[in-house]
Design goal:
heterodimer, A: mainly alpha, MetI-like fold, two-stranded antiparallel ribbon, 15 helices, globular, B: mainly alpha, 16 helices
């Protein structure tokens, strides 16, 4: 296809992507260097028969004029990045000096909002991704062994958790797991602890959200693995059976190597999706004990008084850097393959 | 894989069947339970006293005189203005699907027929864009949209959702277009067609399966989106998912949690029907990129 034709065919989609994905990233980058204005204060002198007092009040008019003139806020450089709500450089060096043991230091650091959210996001990725791969693979193997006639409805049932939006999926589970729901109430009965509830402990909340994540993402891994299993050639498998290979050996040495590229694909996609975990936290009303990076941004953007554009943008930029680190190995590999292919 | 040589033991078969049944229970029961509970009153579905009430309908009988009640539905749809949210969802979904397919087919066709190196890099860039968390993009939109005064209205959200959707649509349609033999449009070009004519009259007619799959995924994204719609639309223009969330926040203390339950069922039912209908396309869509790539 000539370059000119390519250009006209690609122009609409390219334009949309540049305007609404490329530019916003740049806009986020710029916003992250600004912070909202401080309120303008003025001294008011009040005099009464007993003398004069000077009090400091907020000058509403001047504040709003300032906000209208420079809506982006004041230039803050990397100030937002290093403040207490983000990288908290100062606090960390203080903790380093003050705390005596390393465990205590880690404890203090992970109480800072950004690190708390980072810890949860990474824990979530670390537990959900491998389990999703494993469960998806087992379901695919298992369904593959079932008679072809009834597979259709079974597949439909299996992919249900994936097609609902995360908010709805987590709500549906939350209503069962909550103390007043069917599972929560029965757990209380079984454990003989009337105060046992999801919100009562941080660990329980984290476990619930991780279980939700596995429930929600496994169907995706299942679908991809299931399709890949259909393409496994029959001859080597039959040869292995004749040679007396056990079921486990066949899976380990024939099926797995064949679908290996697909495994990396699923791992990559699910890692990308897990890193932006956000809706389940709202669905489970777990803001108190579990916060993710995406949730921090959301929280800044729905702030009641002033929307904290700068703070949200700084967290966004660091999230993007996190994504870049996750994607780097894949990109480097693709580039190498591309270079050798040429 | 039903190997002729592979004799499964009975124990293994039983184990396999049990596992599938347990998994299906885990996957489907929450939805069945929510559907069942949406026809009860709050005191039954969220029972403090005894969870069995949700099945025996103790309070539902007391309050309404019947085993089932559709009170939550009628209230949410009228008083809760869920009708408005579903109307907005329909508008957003229809526009997002048609615009993304239009842009996506053009772009993906060009990518699949180009032998230049930049086509490869565009696909890689699309993959990186696909990885961006939506909330980081939203934090980039909000400020410019406020300044341009285009925040809160449906068209802005539609364009944003189309853009967010493009990377995935491009990848999906690209792999579908790759399966259409090049000779088909090359012969049309020799016969004197322009590229656009070849695309429109030769390629598109054989592309319907791919277009349906891509359309379904755009639909699911637009229909299910929470991040973009919750933050870029004003209260009045909210679609279904942010509406459900607003029921949670405002009504939990007023005892209208049942609105959210019935709204969840109302929003999920059409999606399930659709997927039941197009199951084959959904699965082929998820696998084309993976298995061939």
């Amino acid at each position: 296809m000539p370059n000119k034709t390519f250009f006209w065919f690609f122009l609409p989609t390219g334009l949309v992507m540049i305007l609404f994905i490329g530019l916003p990233i740049i806009s986020t980058g710029i916003q992250s260097f600004y912070a909202q204005h401080d309120q303008v204060v003025k001294e008011v002198k009040k005099c009464d028969p007993f003398g004069c007092t000077v009090s400091i009040v907020v000058d509403q008019e001047a504040t709003s004029i300032l906000r209208d003139e420079k809506p982006l806020g004041k230039f803050n450089g990397f100030g937002t990045y290093v403040d207490r709500n983000h990288l908290a450089i100062e606090q960390i060096s203080d903790f380093w000096k003050e705390t005596e043991t390393f465990g205590e230091f880690i404890n203090q650091v992970t109480n800072l909002p950004f690190y708390k959210a980072l810890l949860f996001t990474l824990t979530y990725c670390l537990f959900v991704t491998p389990n999703v791969l494993l469960l998806g693979f087992i379901i695919a193997l298992s369904l593959n062994a079932i008679s072809r006639k009834i597979r259709g409805p079974l597949i439909f049932g299996t992919i249900l958790p994936m097609i609902v939006t995360p908010l709805v999926g987590s709500l549906v589970l939350f209503w069962m797991i909550d103390a007043e729901g069917i599972i929560g109430a029965n757990l209380q009965l079984m454990m003989e602890d009337p105060y046992l509830s999801l919100k009562s402990s941080r660990t329980l909340t984290w476990i619930t959200i991780i279980i939700y994540g596995i429930w929600h993402h496994s169907p995706f891994a299942f679908v991809v693995f299931y399709a890949a299993l259909q393409t496994v050639p029959q001859e080597p498998v039959e040869a292995a059976i004749i040679d007396g290979a056990s079921r486990y050996q066949r899976i380990r040495h024939i099926v797995l190597p064949h679908i290996y590229p697909v495994v990396t694909f699923v791992a990559l996609i699910s890692l990308m999706d897990n890193f932006r975990v956000f809706e389940p936290i709202i669905g489970f009303s777990a803001e108190g004990s579990a916060q993710s990076l995406s949730w921090l941004i959301y929280d800044n953007l729905v702030n009641e008084e002033v929307i904290l554009f700068g703070s949200a943008a700084a967290t966004s930029m660091m999230t993007i850097i996190g994504i870049a680190i996750l994607l780097a190995p894949v990109l480097i590999r693709t580039w190498k393959e591309f270079r050798t292919a040429r | 894989m039903e190997y002729g040589l592979d004799k499964r033991s009975n124990a293994l078969k039983t184990f396999n069947t049990t596992f599938i049944i347990i998994w299906l229970l885990i996957a489907c029961f929450p939805f069945i339970w929510t559907f069942w509970g949406s026809f009860k009153v709050r005191a039954d579905f969220f029972s403090r006293a005894d969870w069995w009430y949700a099945i025996s309908a103790f309070n539902t009988l007391l309050e309404t005189g019947g085993q089932f009640t559709s009170k939550a539905y009628s209230e949410a749809w009228t008083e809760g203005e869920f009708w408005r949210a579903s109307r907005n969802t329909i508008i957003v979904t229809v526009f997002v699907v048609s615009i993304s397919l239009f842009l996506g087919t053009l772009g993906a066709y060009a990518l699949s027929r180009s032998t230049e190196r930049y086509a490869f890099w565009i696909l890689i860039a699309a993959l990186i864009f696909r990885a961006m968390p939506h909330i980081t993009l939203v934090s980039g939109y909000l400020f410019p949209f406020f300044e341009l005064q285009i925040w809160g209205i449906l068209p802005t959200t539609i364009v944003v959702l189309v853009a967010i959707n493009q990377p995935f649509t491009l990848w999906l349609l690209y792999s579908f277009f790759k399966t259409v033999p090049k000779e088909l449009d090359e012969s049309a070009l020799i016969d004197g067609c322009s590229y656009f004519q070849a695309f429109r009259y030769i390629i598109m007619p054989v592309m319907w399966p791919g277009v349906i799959t891509a359309g379904l995924f755009s639909l699911m994204l637009a229909y299910n989106d929470f991040t973009v719609t919750a933050l870029l639309l004003n209260q009045e223009n909210h679609t279904m998912v942010p509406k459900i969330q607003s029921y949670l926040g405002t009504n939990q203390h007023e005892g209208n949690l049942m609105w959210a339950v019935s709204a969840v069922v109302s929003a999920t039912a059409p999606l399930f029907m659709l997927v039941m209908f197009f199951q084959r396309q959904v699965i082929s869509g998820l696998t084309t990129g993976a298995v061939k790539g």
